[in-house]
Design brief:
alpha/beta; Rossmann fold; Arc Repressor Mutant, subunit A; five-stranded parallel β-sheet; 12 strands; 19% strand
């Protein structure tokens, strides 16, 4: 048996909404792509709502909150990035998978910066997209048996999928929550970006800048001073490590 410390389990497995058909909002201005996406998601057992532009997507999300969104970046009237940001304000933990023909790293990073959980570049496999949707929904499932994780004033409840720092309830995206819960469940251990992609995103390969962006966004929400992070440390040449707070010494 290896001497390496086992990773603490914390995230849910299985379907996202037991006994309920998850609703996926597909936002895509190309009717052919929208129809193919709708058909494959429907065949996979999801209920699908459709929108051809940004304003229609926001109206749909306000009328009935979806369980996940497939969102094209290039939309008429209101860009997908703007829609993503507006959806985050409406539903902070809503899983969002962005679709785009833009394959440059800067475009992917922009989508992640605006709060996307995943990013699929066109042309894409419809089956792969369905798997990505299933993955973000699965990770949004409350983990009933997972213990509450604490570090000083930081409290993360995987079962309720809530995080607090003191009295403040943190507004985290689904991936941000997953990353925080994983790191907090495995303190003191350095993970490289490939390991975090596998453990948190479930990807065997992918753009490692995804991890960098999410760490930066997470630090802005949990660190007293994000420019000098105390909790999520950068391990140069490796990746990142969660360092638990050192209790203050009480003097008489």
């Amino acid at each position: 048996m290896s001497g390496k410390k086992a990773l603490r389990p914390w995230r849910a497995r299985g379907s996202s909404l037991i006994g309920v058909t998850p609703r996926v909002l597909v936002v895509e201005d190309d009717p052919t792509v929208r129809e193919i996406t709708r058909r494959y998601l429907g065949d996979a057992g999801y209920a699908v709502d459709e929108a051809a532009d940004g304003p229609a997507a926001l109206r749909s999300a306000r009328a009935a909150a979806p369980d996940a969104v497939v969102l094209d970046v290039m939309l008429p009237g209101l860009s997908g990035l703007e829609v993503c940001r507006a959806l985050r304000e409406l539903h902070p933990a809503l899983p969002i998978v962005m679709l785009s023909a833009l394959g440059e790293e800067g475009d992917r990073v922009a989508g992640l910066e605006f709060g996307a959980d995943d990013y699929v570049t066109k042309p894409f496999s419809a089956r792969e997209l369905v798997l990505r949707v299933a993955a973000v929904l699965r990770r949004a499932t409350p983990a009933a048996a997972a213990p509450v994780l604490t570090d000083d004033d930081l409290v993360v409840d995987p079962a309720a999928r809530t995080a607090r720092r003191g009295a403040e309830v943190l507004s985290l995206t689904g991936r941000e929550f997953d990353l925080l819960a994983f790191l907090l469940a495995n303190p003191g251990r350095a993970f490289n970006r490939a390991e975090l992609l596998a453990e948190v995103w479930g990807w065997e390969f992918g753009d490692q800048s995804t991890v960098t962006v999410h760490v930066r966004r997470l630090r802005e929400k949990i660190e007293p001073d994000p420019t000098h992070p105390r909790r999520i440390a950068t391990v140069w040449g490796t990746g990142y490590r969660y360092d638990r707070a050192v209790p203050e010494r009480v003097t008489a």
